[in-house]
Amino acid sequence: MPQIEIKSINAFYEKLHVLKNIKLSVSKGEIVSLIGPSGSGKSSLLKMLVGLLIPKSGKMYLNGNLVNFKNQSDLRTVREQIAIVFQQYNLFQNMNVLKNVCIAPTKIQKRNPKEVNEQAITLLEKVGLKDKLKSYPDELSGGQQQRVAIARALCLNPQILLLDEITSALDPELVKEVLDSIRLLASEGMTMLIVSHEMSFVKEVSSRVVFMDEGSIIEINNPKNIFEKPKEKRTLDFVSKILKEK
Amino acid sequence: MGYTLVYTQVLEFLPYLIKGAWISLQIAILAFFGGMFFGLILATIRTFGNNISNKIVICYVTFFTNTPQLVQIYFLFFALPEFGILLSPYIAVLLGMTLNAAAYLCEIQRAGFLSIRQNELDAAKTLNFSLVQQVKYVILPHIMRVLFPPLSNHYIIMTLGTSMAAIFGVEELTGRAFNINSETFRSVEIFSITALIYIVITFIATFLLAVIGRYFFKAKIRIIQ
Ligand SMILES: Nc1ncnc2c1ncn2[C@@H]1O[C@H](COP(=O)(O)OP(=O)(O)O)[C@@H](O)[C@H]1O
Ligand SMILES: [Mg+2]
Questions:
Q1: Quick one: which atom of ligand 1 is closest to the CA of A13?
Q2: ipTM of the complex
Q3: pTM, rounded to two decimals
Q4: Options 1.10.3720.10, 1.25.40.10, 3.30.420.10, 3.30.70.270; which CATH number does B8-217 get?
Q5: Which residues contact A22 (CB under 8 A, 6 or more apart)?
Q6: Domain coordinates of chain B in residue numbers?
Q7: For chain A, what are the domain ranges?
Q8: Is A13 touching ligand 1 by the criterion CB < 6 Å?
C-alpha cells in the first residue's frame, strides 16, 4: 500500500488551473524529486499535499485512508504526518530560532517542553545553527532561515517530509551540509518529496523523478533514465537545457 | 518693558490646573479608545468589505483627515443644533475627537492588517495551529509590534489636541489657564506652567508606552525623540 496516493487531482487558484489531472503514488521510504520549469506547479503540488490548496476534484489517500480536505480532523491528521519546508521558509518573524522550532511540538503536539528543547537544539546543531538559537529570522541569511525551517519540520517527527527548493538560497559550501543531512534522513527511511534544481543531487538520492510542466505531470521515470533517455520530448528539452546551464 | 515674573500668585492655582489636566487626560483616553474601536470597524470594512462599503469608508477617512479638527468640532457644536441635536461642549469635543481619531486609527490599523504575512499563516496552518492559536501566536504579536509605535504617537498628538476644548468652554487644562488668566492677567506665568504640565503628561505617557511596547510587544520606541 502506498503511503501517499493521489488520483486525478485538479486544483485552481481562482481561474488558474494550476494542477491538472495529477496522479502519483509514493511508497514509504521513497524519495521522489519534482523537477520542472518555474511556474509549472511544483510548489502548488506540495501545498496541496498539506491542505493549503484544496483540490476541486480527485482523491488523496494517506496510508490508505481517503482524505477529506473539508474535514478539520482529516486535515489535522494529514498535517501531523506530513511536514513541509516552504520555498520562502515562512518562519515566524516574531519568534527567535529556538521558539520557531519548539512552538508546534510544545503548544500543538503538547509534548514535554524539556524534551522538545533538547531535540530542537540537537537538530539546530546538526544544521550548523548552534550559535543562533536566540536570533530572530530577520537577523539571519536566507540559507540560515532555510535551515531553521528544516529543523522546525524535523522537530515534528513527521513520517513524510516535503522540501521546496531547499538548496536555492544556500551558499555553495552549505549546499553540501544540507544535502548531507537529507541523505542521512533518506538512509533512515524517511519518505520525502523534494523540489530541487540541483540535478546531480536529484540524480543521486531520488528513487523516482517527476517532471512537471504547466500544471501536468509529463513524465515519471527513474533518475538515470530521466536524464539520459527520457520518454518525452518536453522532458528532454528541459533536462538538456538545465544541464547545459551548469 | 519692566514685566517681572511673579509665580507665587499663580502657584496657588496649581491644584486647580492639575484637576484640569485630569479632564484633558480623560478626553484624550476616551477619544483614543473610542477612535480605536470605531477605527477598527472601519478598517475591517475597508479590508474585507465590498466596493460600496469601501468607498463610504474612504470618503469618511478623506473628509476627517483633510479638514481641520477645529472645523469638525465647530460643525458638531453649531450645526447639529439646527437639526435638533444639542451637545454639551464636553460631549461635542469628545465626539469630534473620537470621529477624527477613528479616521486616522482606521488607516493605522488597516496598515497593520495588510502587514500580516500570509506565509506565516500558511506555516501556522501546516503546523496545525487552530484559528485561535494563529491569532494568539502569529497575528496579534505581529500586529501589536507593528501598530504600537504609530498608535502611541497618535495618542500623544491627541493628548495635546484636547486643548482645543478650551475654545468651546470646556474647563480642561487650557480652559482653566484661560480662566486664571482673565482673573490675574499673569499670562506668561500661567501659560508657562500650563505648558510644563503638558510636557509632564506627555513625557509620562511616552515613557509608559515605550516600556509597555518594549516589554510586551518588542516594539521599538524611542523615549526621547
Ligand atoms: N497563491 C497564489 N495565487 C495565485 N496564483 C498562484 C499562487 N501561487 C502560485 N500561483 C501561480 O500558480 C502557478 C504555479 O506556481 P508554483 O506552484 O509556485 O510553481 P513552481 O513552484 O513550479 O515554480 C504559477 O503560474 C503561479 O504564478
Ligand atoms: Mg516553487
A1: 4
A2: 0.93
A3: 0.82
A4: 1.10.3720.10
A5: A6, A8, A9, A10, A45, A58, A216, A217
A6: 8-217
A7: 4-245
A8: yes
Amino acid at A175: V
Q: What dotted CATH number matches A4-245?
A: 3.40.50.300
Q: E strands along chain A, which residues?
A: 4-13, 16-26, 31-35, 57-62, 65-66, 82-85, 160-164, 191-195, 208-213, 216-221
Cβ contacts of B28 within 8 Å, gap of 6 or more: B97, B155, B158, B159, B161, B162
A75, β-bridge pairs: none
Q: Which three cell numbers stand for residue A44?
A: 502548488
To probe the interface with A, which of B122, B128, B220 has the most A CB atoms within 10 Å?
Answer: B128
Q: Which helix (H) or strand (E) holds B60?
A: helix B51-65
In terms of Cα–Cα distance, which of A215, A163, A222 is closest to A190? A163
B95's enclosing H/E stretch is helix B89-114
Distance (Å, rounded) from C-alpha B101 to C-alpha B96? 8
Whether B127 sits inside 8 A of A108 (CB atoms) is yes
Contact criterion met (CB below 8 Å) for A239 and A210:
no
- Candidates A52, A104, A152; nearest CB to B128: A104
CA distance A123 to A126: 5
Q: Is the CB of A196 under 6 A from ligand 1?
A: no
What is the β-pairing status of strands A31-35 and A208-213? parallel
CB contact under 8 A, B142 and A84: no
pLDDT tens string, chain A, 246 residues long: the values are 899 999 999 999 999 999 999 999 999 999 999 999 999 999 999 999 999 999 999 999 999 999 999 999 999 999 999 999 999 999 999 999 999 999 999 999 999 999 999 999 999 998 889 999 999 999 998 888 989 999 999 999 999 999 999 877 677 777 777 777 788 888 888 999 999 988 888 888 899 999 999 999 999 999 999 999 999 999 999 999 988 876
What is the nearest CA distance from A76 to chain B, expressed in angstroms? Answer: 6
Q: Which of A9, A10, A12, A13, when mutated, tests ligand 1's pocket best, judged by the most ligand atoms within 8 Å of its CB?
A: A13
A15 lines ligand 1 (CB under 6 A): no
How many whole angstroms separate alpha carbon A83 and alpha carbon A108? 14
Mutate-to-test residue for ligand 1 from A14, A42, A44, highest number of ligand atoms within 8 A of CB: A44
Strand A4-13 with A57-62, pairing: antiparallel
